[in-house]
């Protein structure tokens, strides 16, 4: 009987090497070419994300407004005054509430619809390419153009109410304080669906055929295969879809701005970004706008952590 | 060490200077050379702007104007605000909104026109008493009142005739007459709605529903005067109730309409200025009346919202002497006449109705607006002007358009907030 053992691969102790490296070597790292290739993106991140975010934090703690170069202005430190102003503003609180409603509708709807449709489009069905393109078209069409169509569909004399007849809501969808935000959420779900279907289609290519065959041999039906093989198999994509849908929802602006006429009716579809635009840009209070933005970033991070905890957990 | 102390001393001096506030000293008001100007992007104003620039450049080879339309953005004001911050605003913008002046002024982006020796005399001489409304809270003029679009009620004669109403002299003077008339028009299916001002929530939408009627009802009061909101009084309540009745009875629409409701026959009336005459030509057989009041004031006593746009000089301008000369040239009697001819909008001159007799003889439709131009009310020139308008709009939208609160209570609550904003500035 021959006993074999796996060869032990020992890593070279890093301690010894780094101890002999110069400061320049430490700066450029062990993979200088890799570092050089990554550097442009790091610079991009610092310039386009990190610096503006840091500056927004700075602005939110000062009595800040934009001024002409050379103008001498006072911008005193005001600690948490802007945050207090934001949190005591009923319109801001309502906007955060609205976006939660939006996310509760948009998130699950996006995941379910895009996964089911991707699964269907992944199968050998007729007109597959046509359907794939059809679902993707709204995503690449400018919101301004699509909003016009939805206004015609959902106004009181529109097609949807004509079909619904006596059960059509009154006031109509976009001027109904209970239905305006759900309508916006459904609109955004429909518009973004093509992109998320694409993500799931890519993820589905990585689910092994063997697993479906094994499930079939064990007597699993279509639904059981979908539930026990497909859903767990695309979990990393689901994490990404949920996260991206959350970020998209948190950045909601165009739809309440155009579809519901500036967050109407009576603020029922106002989003934090819309309020941020009103306060920060239109009304010339970037300090208040920055405070809303920072609170939004914190909110999104918390939601992302929760989602990662529940959706992205390892089995 | 010595260098550190010197640097610290300089920093202390700069900090002390910053603490004093105020704008940095600008270039010489006499400096001359090339300048840049922006104008609006509507076709008529572009045509006027091009001929004005060509006329100036033909005579001033050493002080040429480079002109362009205001770059596109969500609004002109947003673009101008960004240009001020970036330091690349042009010398003059021929489309500066009076509502944004206080904000631009706070940014240090404007040149007070009183800086020029003949600044005040020229401005007041051209516009007369109306100029007073454009003075800032520090007593200076940061804008030259340029042109107005006094808002009146256009009505569709065919829709009125269909309801059996005399289309040449419809009863629209009092609020009650107005309501009775439009009920008949809608009942006779002259149009789906009596009137359809944008029911959306942008801060400026109240300029085209509440404010013209408020100006008329009060005999020319602004939304805010002497640091106090004026809209929660008896006149404001009457106007709010008038509009509430229109919305409650579905005579005015609560939904946005993406086209032109008046031109498309969706609404029997529109509340707009003289720019609309050329737009409706050949599309609607229209008549025009002043906005109604509760007591039915005579037409020659009716005030309305000006919907004015002005010219401001921006602090990034180096050759301010030239810019001032261009400003006077562009608002001269001759250029104002060309502006009137090309755009149909009213130059903010004290004598506009009598200054261009030939034009008004040939274009009698515009004469009504020229007469109305003598009685216009501007948005109040106060700090936080846009915040004040948004506060008002939110309350108006909630109570008057959507009926979720009593209009009187909503206006009172908004007035308290506006008083607070006005006292903080």
TrEMBL record, chain A:
Q: What is the lineage of its organism?
A: Bacteria, Bacillati, Actinomycetota, Actinomycetes, Propionibacteriales
- Keywords for this entry? Cell membrane, Membrane, Sugar transport, Transmembrane, Transmembrane helix, Transport
List the PANTHER family. Answer: ARABINOOLIGOSACCHARIDES TRANSPORT SYSTEM PERMEASE PROTEIN ARAP, BLL4140 PROTEIN
Subcellular location as annotated: Cell membrane
* Recorded topology in the membrane: Multi-pass membrane protein
Every ABC transmembrane type-1 domain range: 96-307
In which organism is this protein found? Kribbella pratensis
Can you say what this protein is called? Multiple sugar transport system permease protein
The record's listing under Pfam families reads:
BPD_transp_1
From TrEMBL, chain B:
Top-level taxon of origin: Bacteria
A Pfam family recorded for this sequence: SBP_bac_1
Alphabetical keyword list: Signal, Transport
> PROSITE patterns given for it?
PROKAR_LIPOPROTEIN
InterPro entries reported in the protein's UniProt record: SBP
Please list which residues make up the signal peptide.
1-23
| Protein family according to the UniProt entry | Belongs to the bacterial solute-binding protein 1 family.
Q: What is this protein called?
A: Carbohydrate ABC transporter substrate-binding protein (CUT1 family)
Q: What is the source species?
A: Kribbella pratensis
- Lineage start: Bacteria, Bacillati, Actinomycetota, Actinomycetes, Propionibacteriales
């Amino acid at each position: 009987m021959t006993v074999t053992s796996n060869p032990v691969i020992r890593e070279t102790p890093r301690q010894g090497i780094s101890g002999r490296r110069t400061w320049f070597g430490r700066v450029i790292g062990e993979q200088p070419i890799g570092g050089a290739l990554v550097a442009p993106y790091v610079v991009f991140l610092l310039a386009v994300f990190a610096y503006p975010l840091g500056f927004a934090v700075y602005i939110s703690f000062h009595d800040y407004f934009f001024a002409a170069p050379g103008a001498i202005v006072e911008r005193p430190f005001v600690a948490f005054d802007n945050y207090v102003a934001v949190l005591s503003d009923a319109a801001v609180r309502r906007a955060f509430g609205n976006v939660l409603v939006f996310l509760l509708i948009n998130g699950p709807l996006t995941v379910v619809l895009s996964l089911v449709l991707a699964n269907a489009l992944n199968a050998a069905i007729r007109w597959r390419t046509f359907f794939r393109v059809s679902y993707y078209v709204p995503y690449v069409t400018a919101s301004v153009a699509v909003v016009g169509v939805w206004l015609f569909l959902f106004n009181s004399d529109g097609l949807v109410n004509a079909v619904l007849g006596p059960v059509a809501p009154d006031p109509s969808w976009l001027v109904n304080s209970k239905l305006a935000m759900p309508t916006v959420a459904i609109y955004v779900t429909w518009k973004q669906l093509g992109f998320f279907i694409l993500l799931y289609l890519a993820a589905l290519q990585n689910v092994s055929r063997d697993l479906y065959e094994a499930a079939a041999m064990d007597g699993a039906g279509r639904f059981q295969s979908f539930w026990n093989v497909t859903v767990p198999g695309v979990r990393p994509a689901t994490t990404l879809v949920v996260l991206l849908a959350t970020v998209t929802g948190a950045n909601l602006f165009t739809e309440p701005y155009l579809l519901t006429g500036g967050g109407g009716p009576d603020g029922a579809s106002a989003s934090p970004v819309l309020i941020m635009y009103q306060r920060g840009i239109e009304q010339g209070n970037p300090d208040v706008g920055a405070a809303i933005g920072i609170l939004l970033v914190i909110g999104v991070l918390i939601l992302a952590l929760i989602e990662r905890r529940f959706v992205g957990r390892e089995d | 060490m010595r260098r550190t102390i010197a640097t610290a001393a300089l920093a202390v001096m700069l900090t002390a200077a910053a603490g004093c506030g105020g704008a940095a000293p600008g270039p010489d008001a006499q400096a001359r050379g090339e300048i840049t100007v922006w104008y609006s992007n509507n076709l008529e104003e572009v045509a006027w702007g091009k001929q004005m620039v060509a006329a100036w450049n033909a005579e001033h080879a050493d002080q040429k104007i480079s002109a362009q339309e205001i770059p596109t953005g969500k609004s002109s004001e947003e673009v101008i605000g960004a240009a001020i911050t970036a330091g690349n605003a042009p010398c003059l913008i021929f489309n500066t909104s009076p509502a944004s002046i206080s904000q631009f002024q706070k940014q240090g982006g404007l040149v007070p026109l009183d800086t020029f020796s003949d600044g005040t005399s020229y401005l007041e001489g051209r516009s007369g008493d109306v100029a007073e409304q454009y003075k800032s809270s520090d007593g200076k003029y940061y804008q030259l009142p340029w042109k107005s679009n006094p808002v009146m009620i256009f009505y569709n004669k065919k829709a009125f005739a269909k309801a059996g109403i005399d289309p040449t002299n419809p009863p629209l003077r009092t609020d009650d007459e107005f309501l009775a008339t439009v009920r008949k028009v809608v009942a006779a299916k002259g149009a789906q709605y009596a009137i359809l001002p944008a029911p959306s929530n942008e801060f400026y939408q109240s300029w085209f529903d509440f404010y013209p009627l408020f100006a008329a009802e009060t005999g020319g009061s602004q939304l805010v005067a002497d640091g106090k909101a004026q809209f929660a009084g008896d006149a404001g309540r009457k106007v709010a109730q008038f509009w509430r009745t229109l919305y409650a009875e579905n005579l005015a629409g609560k939904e946005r309409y993406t086209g032109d409701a008046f031109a498309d026959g969706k609404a029997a009336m529109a509340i707009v200025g003289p720019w609309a005459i050329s737009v409706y030509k050949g599309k609607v057989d229209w008549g025009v009346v002043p906005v109604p009041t509760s007591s039915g004031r005579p037409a020659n006593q009716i005030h309305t919202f000006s919907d004015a746009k002005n010219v401001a000089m921006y602090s990034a301008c180096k050759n301010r002497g030239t810019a001032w000369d261009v400003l006077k040239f562009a608002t001269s009697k001759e250029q104002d006449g060309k502006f009137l001819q090309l755009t149909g909008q009213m130059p903010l001159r004290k004598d506009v109705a009598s200054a261009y007799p030939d034009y008004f003889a040939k274009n009698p439709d515009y004469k009504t607006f020229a007469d109305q131009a003598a009685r216009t009310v501007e948005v109040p020139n106060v700090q936080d002007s846009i915040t004040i308008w948004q506060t008002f709009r939110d309350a108006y939208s909630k109570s008057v358009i959507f009926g979720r609160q009593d209009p009187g209570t909503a206006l009172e609550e908004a007035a308290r907030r506006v008083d607070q904003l006005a006292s903080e500035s």
